[in-house]
Every structure is written in structure tokens, then in C-alpha cells.
Amino acid sequence: MMRAMWRPIFIRCAKAAAALALLLPVGAVALAQNPAQPAQKAVPEAAAVGKDDGQWTMAEKNYAATRYSSLDQINGGNVAKLRPEFAFSTGVNRGEEAAPLVVDSTMYIVTAYPNDLFALDLTKPGAPLKWEYQPHPDAGSQGVACCDVVNRGAAYSDGKLFFNTLDDNTVAVDAKTGKELWKTKLGDINRGETMTMAPLVVKGKVLVGNSGGEFGVRGWITALDANSGKIAWRAYSTGPDKDVLIGADFKPFYKQDKGADLGVKTWPPQAWKTGGGTVWGWIAYDPDLNLIYYGTANPGPWNQEQRPGDNLWTAGVFARDPDTGAAKWFYQTFPHDEHDYDGVNEIILLDMPVNGKVRKVLLHPDRDGYMYVLDRATGELLQAHPYGPINSTKGVDLKTGRPIVNPEKTTKLGQTVRDICPTASGAKDWQPSAFSPRTGLVYVPHENLCMDWEDLQVNYIAGTPYVGANVVMKPGPGGNRGFLTAWDPVAGKPVWQDKEDLPVWSGALATAGDLVFYGTMDGWFKAIDAKTGGLKWQFKTGSGIIGQPVAYKGPDGREYIAVFSGVGGWAGAIVAGNLDPKDPTAALGFVGAMADLKQRTAPGGTVYVFALPSS
Amino acid sequence: MSSHCRPLSPPRSPLIPSPAGGGGLGWGLLPVLAVMVLAATAQAQPAGVQPPVSLPSAQAAPRNVAVTTLFPGGGSPPSEDPIARVYQDNSRYINDGKRLFGWYNCSGCHANGGGGMGPALTDNQWRYGGRLDQIFSSIAQGRPNGMPHWAGKIPDAQIWELAAFVRSLSVPTPANAGNTAAKPPPPKSEAPGVQTAPK
Fold it and tell me: Residue A198 — very low, low, confident or very high, per pLDDT cuts 50/70/90?
């Protein structure tokens, strides 16, 4: 890890001089939008955070999605003594992106395909297995999972665990016994649909969404009754208003989002039916406003020339009523996305001063490289500052809410457009950030990658990829492929950045011990100082880490830190899928940037749990 | 948009998957593909793919293909279907197969051979056998961990061409080896790595 206090990212551009020339004014413009702010910290939405009982019941930790634990036993003064307490091998050696959950002295772990669910008894030495539940998903689902066969975890509520299987089932399991309570089929692998996201449970409804934006899937979010598994509502991301659950309550802030059936009219005829906008990322919930927030993924196919138009309602953020699904507002981070910039990244609910006035905002580090700050009641764009190198756009127009597209990086049929930044996986992908109310900073794990892109004409054949692009990714300016960035949301700029050689594809965890935990793709699990970014402790696990670290209070009253180690995901597909490093277009182009990963780590699937030595 | 921005030729017909989702593969598909599926003849080529110079008269799937190296009681792999010799190492068929590889979205999963959702095809590692008839069978039948079943969807002759291209990705041939001296292909009746039965 290389550490540096923040200097403007763009000044470090060592290559792609043309890109650099573009980047400098962009950064300058972006920063100029943000005059000095009062020294006032952001705080998470109080109702959404609730009381921290030392458990970890959902991947996001709480509805505000802060991934912050108020436990402080482990801190900068003693973290050097942190050591493994136990480890649990799941026997599943694919990309392990899930957060272990801890409820009632039991740890729950859901694996990548075949999506086994394990319950470990934390009251006994070594945390022995209590039960295992195997959903036995259809093996064919592995062939339609775009970017490794991952699963991002389970959610706990009222004695039940809920999670999704790769073959499109949402399952409820009795947390005490491991018995299946219900299983509801929601999609079809023969249309290219899979499910990989972690559900969120809100007011007795289990909220889930589909994956498959690389297969011409029509995206949706669905609410299931937590007791029965019956579908309460479903809202599509494309198509007529009645399918999108757009009605009288829908009041988007910007004029381009106002009008009837825009989910049809902003597409070529019928193209919305295969238009993507899947919902495979994160959901947040504001109990005061009674709104859920989530992002929609890229439009399909990747070849933008086959789908002229804004392609609503893909690549943006929806606010909906969780009871009915009715849309309240939508903000499109990327109208007519050309670079696979999904809008599904995490959404953190904060209250913070904007231009001197405290606003209820959501913070969203998007794939396109901007840290969006939206008014979460209205969908108004308040800030959009770059947090990584960008040349595909020249900023975001705060008046219209639209990105200013750089025509030099527009993708074209039969022509390779070089050095587009950020890359298809974005300045950041799914890997969720953490927010510490103690420092007021957001800790963002992310990539530093650019790419070459050539559009190809593609045919829609149901159940096969609908991509239409040759992509080759490469390290971004400076050569390091990853960052852990500490971001000041009020000032709208980074405070410091830790460089990593590999993309940081793990989630981040912040604790009241003023530590931030994350993992590297070659297996190091690290604790850094939340104020300075300085490395305080590290441990080499058995495989690359792309999971979400969590903190919990054990039955013995001690603080524990847990993380899944098991490389894979899109970035690690070269190892998890044993791909050929000689083909830089492999794994939709990610292998181009990861050719060395097979020499750095091997597949795995083990949960590690750490604690201080008991006195 | 740009001058490149034109509908597929012929125009794209939206796929409306069957709500039940089972079985039908939602194959509402491109008219051109439907034609191909029905006709299954050399005339029904996708745009840009020329018919092979002379298709073998017999286009059928190979019979009796082994995907294992174990033969209880002794024995050896069944000999390869003679049709395979027509396609194997034939640059015209390999080039056609390359175009079909993109046309049928094989490249979406296997990239340009390095793999992705599907395994790499360039590394000469074969889960279900690397002989041409074995590759044909993997494409036609599908394989349980994610390889779709293509038999009946595209003509057998095209599956042979695809198989010839896939095999060429890891076995140097005059078609893909440029000016470098090509390694002679393995004996047609015996794929590399296939053990003969113990005596």
C-alpha cells in the first residue's frame, strides 16, 4: 500500500497525455463549484441508523448504509495485537462478496453459487456449525452470470434469513433451525436473468432485484411479503409507466424525466424489452420520508449505437414508496450510457450542510466517477465531484442534472476508442463504502482503471450475452489499479487516498475505534487509521478479498471483525474462472488489467474472524 | 446518432419471452435466425457469412462421442466420425466458424477465446474433450455448468464450423498460425491425452 495525502488526482496522470489535458480543466471546474464550506460534519440519517446493538443484521449494517460499527474495543492503540480467532472454510472457491451476518450469537454466511447458507454457533469455542441450508440452484445459472457467480449476502429480520439464489429464487430460512420457510421463483435463466444482490427488509417486505444487464434482461425490483413469500409489487426499470409503477406520485426534479411512458419513448421501438436496467446493487431506506432508494444498471446492449435515446429508466437512482412500490422521483446519472456505467452502487443517507443549509441528502459514488449528492426528498442534484480520473465526461451540469459527454470518448462501431476513463467497471463498482460519523468521512474502496472500447453489432438471442463490444481494460493514471479514498462529503473532495496496486474490490468497514478495514485482491486484510489512512495492521488471508468486512460484539462481550476471503467477481474472474491472461478481452475486458492476478492469489472461500487476545 | 446507427439487418425483432419461461428458450429471435433454424441449409447463412465452398453431403451430428477417458473392461475411445476430417484444419470452415462465434454470441461468454462467463478455449484444457467431434457434442448438447444446448437451433454444418474454429484456438493450424510452421494436428482417430485401455 502506498499512502499519500490528497492532491488532485488529475495532476498525477503519468500517461495518456491527451486524457490529462482534458482532465485538468474538469477537476478545476468541479472544485470551483464548491467554495469553502463551514467546518460542519455530515451525520447519518438518525432514524435510518437506529440503535447499534453490536449485531450485524444486514449487509449495509443499517438502513442509512453506513457500514459503521459503534464498537471501539479495537482501536489504533491495540489493533497491532489483532489476531485470527477462528476461520471457516465454506468449500466454495468462487468470488465471495457476501457480508457475514451476526444475530443472536450466531454467524450466518451465504456463499457464491451454489449459494449454501451456513450458521455458526458463536457461543462455543471455534464457532462450530449449527446447520447448513443448501438451495441447490440450477447449475445452468452459472452460464448466465455475467461476472462470476457471486452473492452479496443475506438479510435478517424477525427470526428469518432472506437471500437470493443464482437461479432467481428468493428464499426465507428459519434462523434457528435452518429450515426453508418459503422459496419464490422470480426470474428465468433462459432469459439471462440471475440474482446476486443482498435483499433489504423494510416494513415486512423483502426487497430484491435481478441481474443480467449483459443479457438483455429487463430489470426489476420486487417486494415479497416476508411471511408468505408472495409478491407484493414489482417495478420494472423500462417500459410503460404502469410497469414502472409511475403514477400520480411521481415527481422527478428534471424536465427530461417528465412525461408519459418515457420508459418506452426514450428507446428505439421495442428495445426497452431487452434494455437492461437491472437492480443488482444496494438499497437504502429513509423511515422518516418512507422512501427506499436504489440504482438501476446499464442499458443493454453495451453497443450504444443500437439504442439511440436516453434509455430511461436505466443508469439512475429511483426513490419509491416501499409499501406500494410507487415511484416518487428518478435521477438519471447517465442518460444513454455508452460505457457500462451502471447506477447500482451504494447509497448512503446523510444530513449535511450544502451551501450553508443542512439538507437531507443521499450520497452515491457512481460508476461514472462522480460522487453524486442528491436531495433525497426531491431528487435534485446538489453536488457531483469526481473521485477518480474521468475523461468520458467533462463534468455534470448542475442545472440540467446531465453529464457533459466528451465526444472524443463516444464509442463507435468498428473503431477502437482508446483510453476511456473510468473503465466499464467504473471508478468504483459494487464494493460498498463506509461512513464514520466520528470523522465525517466516507471511505470509498475503488478502482483506477481505463479502457479501450470497440462497438460490435450484436444480435439478441435470449439467454446469451447481449453486449456488442470489445473492451480491454488497463491501469489508470499513475499505474496503481486501486484506491481507498477518504472523502469529505461536505467539502466534496478527498482528504487522503491510500493507493493499492490491485483494484480494491472489497467493501469497507468503519468502526468507533477510528479504524477502517478493507481487503486486497491478493489477500491482505488491512486496518488503517480513519483519520490519516496510515496502515495500522494487516493479515494475509488464504485468497484475495472481495467480501464485505463486518464488526460485532461476541457473546463474551468482545469485539470481533469478520471478513470473507475468496477472490473472484468481475475483477477476479481471471482466477475464479481460470481464464486465459493472453486474451485481454476476456471477462468483458477485465483480464486486460488483471493478467498478473494468477501469480498473486488462488481461489478460496474462507471466513476469517479476528479479535484481540482475551486478557 | 451516427451513420453507424442503423438497425440490425434485417431489423431487430423484439424477443418476447414466453411468460412461463420453460423450455421454449424464448426463441422469438431474429427472423434470420428463425429461418436458419427451420431451413438448416447452407443457404441460410447470417449476413456476412459466406456459405462454405462445399458442404459435406452428410451434415449430421457425430455418433458415439466419448467425453470420458474411462472405458470399463478395457477399450479405447470410439473412432472419430469421418465428417470431422472435412472440417478440421480447413481454413475456410474455421473462418466461417469464427464469424458464427460472434454471430451467435459465443464471444459474449468466451471472449476472443480467453473466456469469461464460459471457460477459456485457448488454453488446450478440455473438460469434455478436445477432439473435434467432442467439441461438436459440447456445443450441440450443451454442458451442465452453463453451456447452452444449440442442437436444433443452428444447422449441424455450422456447429461443425464452430467446433473447427474453437479447436483452432488452442491447436495451431495453417489457418491461425500465420507464417510460423504449424504443428501437425494430432492423429484424427486419437485425441491427445486420451489413454488407451490397460491390457
Answer: very high
Tell me if A135 sits within 8 A of A183, measured CB to CB: yes
Q: Which three cell numbers stand for residue A461?
A: 438471442
Distance of alpha carbon B126 from alpha carbon B134, whole angstroms: 10
State yes or no: is A214 an active-site residue: yes
Q: Band of the pLDDT at B176, cuts 50, 70, 90?
A: very low
**β-sheet bridge partners, residue A89:** A606
Query: Which residues lie closer than 8 Å to A16 by C-beta, 6 or more apart?
Result: A391, A419, A421, A450, A477
Q: B115 vs A460: CB contact, 8 Å cut-off?
A: no
Burial profile A121-133: b = 16 or more Cβ within 10 angstroms, e = fewer: bbeeeebeebbeb
ipTM computed for the complex: 0.91
* Residue A115 annotated to the active site: no
Which residues does chain A have within 8 Å of residue B108's beta carbon, measured at their own beta carbons?
214, 458, 464-467
In percent, how much of chain B has pLDDT > 70? 56
A382 touches chain B (CB under 8 A): no
Distance CA(A498)–CA(A482), nearest Å, equals 8
Q: Quick one: cell of A411?
A: 464509442
Residues with Cβ < 8 Å from A84, sequence gap 6 or more? A539, A608, A609, A610
Number of separate helices (H) and strands (E) present in chain A = 5, 40
Q: In sequence order, what are the residues at sequence separation of 6 or more whose Cβ sits closer than 8 angstroms to the Cβ of residue A560?
A: A85, A551, A552, A553, A554, A609, A610, A611
DSSP assignment letter at A531: T
Residue A596 phi, psi (nearest 5) = -90, -5
First to last CA, chain A: 32
- Strand A205-209 and strand A559-565: pairing? unpaired
Q: Is the peptide bond before B51 cis (omega within 30 degrees of 0)?
A: no
What whole-number distance in Å separates Cα of residue A11 and Cα of residue A80?
Answer: 35
Residue of B nearest to A214 (CA): B108
In chain A, whose CA is at the least distance from the CA of B123?
Answer: A580
Spatial separation of the C-alpha atoms in residues A233 and A223, rounded to whole Å: 5
- Pick the catalytic residue from A115, A164, A169, A298: A298
- pLDDT tens-digit readout, B60-99: 888 889 999 999 999 889 999 889 999 999 999 999 999 9
Q: Which of A113, A133, A359 is nearest to B145 (CA)?
A: A113
Q: Which member of A142, A271, A577 has the closest CB to residue B115? A: A577
Question: Which residues lie closer than 8 Å to B191 by C-beta, 6 or more apart?
Answer: B77, B80, B129, B130, B131, B134
Query: Cell numbers of B86, please?
Result: 472435412
Whole-number pLDDT of residue B59:
62
pLDDT tier for residue A39 given thresholds of 50, 70 and 90: low
- Rounded to whole angstroms, the Cα distance separating A327 from A309 reads 21
DSSP codes, A208-257? EE-B-TTTTPBPEEEEEETTT--EEEEEESSS-HHHHT--TT---SSGGG
A73-82, B18-27, B67-76: range with lowest mean pLDDT: B18-27
Place of cell 494487516: A538
Residue with cell 474502496: A445
Contact B132, B86 (CB under 8 A): no
Site from B45, B100, B117 to mutate, A interface, most A CB atoms within 10 angstroms: B117
Closest listed residue to residue B47, CA positions, set B10, B2, B20, B95: B10
What is the rounded distance in angstroms from the CA atom of residue A315 to the CA atom of residue A296? 5
CB contact under 8 A, B146 and A577: no
Locate the chain A residue with the closest alpha carbon to B147: A143
Q: Of the candidates B27, B108, B115, which has its C-beta nearest A465's C-beta?
A: B108
Residue A150 to residue A507: CA distance in whole angstroms = 14
Encode A108-138 in three state secondary structure: EEECCCCCCEEEEECCCCCCCEEEEECCCCC
Q: How far is CA A198 from CA A91, A435, B130, in A?
A: 21, 19, 39
> What's the DSSP call for residue B46?
P
